[in-house]
Design a protein that fits this description.
about 450 residues, five-stranded antiparallel sheet, alpha+beta, three-stranded antiparallel sheet
Length: about 450
């Protein structure tokens, strides 16, 4: 790959990386107020405090969505128990964690990326930070990923324990990867754009091994919906904190005391709690002392903070805050409570289903399943939400009694079941054990004997 092209790609990507950095800072509660603050006016002697209060609304709303969607792992079924088991083994113990992190990246940065590869004859995958990724799609209506650029910083220590900074640039297509190592970093001293090392290798994945997980079809981050509201909330609260700090300071206004030593005046005021004044020829006092302080519109501030907080959660489609009295509410009432969060999560799920299908097909291809392209993949998503377990269990019980749905469907939707396949195996084993005990009881009661002789009528 041409070095000049790599240089242009990195230089022109500066704005995108900055935007992603801002979005990540808000998730880490490092909002814009931390950098800007509410600077006091130079002409205002009452303004000295510069508190910068940042609020983690974005982190709370993001984690709420991620936990709602991925506390319970997505289950995959292709209709064959043996293959399902192999797929689960290939996904490994990290699948739930990687799924949650993908959702966090997508929520923050519009899209998350998953990279997969084969290592030691095992299927491997990991989430890649969004700022490292530049996808190249074809120009067709149903866009297809044809190339992929990934670049990131790394550090190494030499024999003398001196730390050196490098930037790694990778170019991927459906057959090979080119890897360049440049000395320098993405900020500060910059890059040399003369590679110190170059590596090229081929792969047999027959596809660009990166999978896209969009936050929604329009590629909009959740932060964009309420960032301005959070900024205003931070400013109002920071200004409130500044006022509370500044109100403790009184400004003394001396009238006709231009020649008075200020330190001596304040010392005598503190010691004697009095102020001397002079009387003119007309018998009137020529001097005087007044104070100037700050008045805080408490009611107005509290009102705007409440309005902003409510609007942040409304715009973020988050759960209502400070709601009491749900108690033993029915399933319908609880679902109504989650309606806005479910709408937001549903749009993300639509996009994530496509990504997970690609991941499962890549695994099936690795497992050498002949019809991996045409296999029907069924995904089961379980939300982590407050529910009326008694009501759900009763519904499952009645459905089983009426024989309206299968045991498998009941197991997948029962509130206590996390792994339906394992639960069905336990249920089958339990039934077999119960039947065995019944046969033993029946035999011991004399109801059945393998060695008995039928009465042939000869006995009297």
């Amino acid at each position: 790959m041409d070095i000049n092209k790599i240089k242009k790609i990195i230089q022109y990507d500066h704005e995108r990386r900055n935007q992603i950095a801002i979005e990540k800072k808000y998730y880490e509660n490092d909002n814009m107020i931390k950098a800007t603050g509410i600077l006091p006016a130079d002409t205002d002697p009452l303004r000295n405090a510069d508190n910068r209060v940042s609020h983690n609304f974005h982190q709370l709303i993001t984690d709420e969505k991620v936990s709602y969607m991925f506390t319970n792992p997505v289950l995959f079924d292709i209709g064959e128990d043996d293959t399902n088991k192999k797929i689960t083994q290939a996904l490994g113990d990290d699948f739930k964690s990687e799924s949650a992190y993908l959702c966090t990246n997508a929520t923050n940065n519009k899209v998350g990326w998953l990279h997969y590869w084969i290592e030691d004859n095992e299927f491997q995958y990991a989430t890649v930070e969004t700022e490292q990724c530049i996808p190249i799609f074809d120009g067709k209506l149903k866009k297809k990923l044809i190339d992929f650029y990934r670049y990131y910083e790394m550090t190494e220590e030499d024999d003398r324990c001196n730390t050196k900074s490098y930037v790694i640039f990778e170019f991927w297509d459906n057959k090979h990867c080119e890897k360049y190592k440049f000395k320098g970093n993405l900020s500060g001293t910059g890059l040399t754009y003369m590679p110190e090392a170059y590596e090229e290798f081929t792969h047999e994945l027959e596809d660009v091994p990166f999978i896209e997980f969009k936050n929604n079809r329009n590629m909009i981050s959740d932060l964009k919906k309420y960032k301005d509201l959070i900024d205003i909330y931070d400013k109002v609260m920071s200004g409130y904190a500044n006022d509370l700090e500044d109100i403790q300071q009184l400004i003394y206004i001396l009238e006709n005391y231009s020649g008075e030593d200020l330190k001596e005046f304040l010392g005598e005021l503190k010691r004697y709690k009095t102020v001397k004044t002079e009387t003119g020829a007309d018998g009137r006092t020529n001097g005087g002392l007044k104070t100037l302080s700050i008045e805080i519109p408490v009611e107005a501030r509290n009102s705007i903070l409440e309005i902003l907080k409510k609007q942040i959660y409304e715009s973020g489609q988050a759960l209502q805050q400070d709601i009491e009295g749900f108690g033993n509410a029915s399933g319908v009432a609880l679902k109504f409570f989650y309606r806005k969060l479910e709408l937001k999560a549903g749009l993300t799920q639509i996009e994530f289903e496509k990504g997970f299908n690609k991941l499962i097909r890549a695994i099936m291809k690795f497992l050498k399943i002949s019809d991996w392209k045409t296999k029907t993949i069924t995904q089961t998503w379980t939300r982590n939400m407050i529910s009326n377990d008694l009501e759900n269990a009763q519904i499952a019980n009645e459905s089983k009694a009426n024989e309206t749905i299968s045991d498998e469907t009941i197991a997948k939707n029962h509130p206590w079941v996390e792994n339906p396949e394992e639960e069905l195996k336990k249920l089958k084993s339990q039934k077999e054990e119960a039947q065995k005990r019944q046969q033993e009881i029946f035999a011991n009661a004399g109801g059945f004997n393998d060695n008995h002789n039928e009465d042939d009528g000869t006995n009297e």
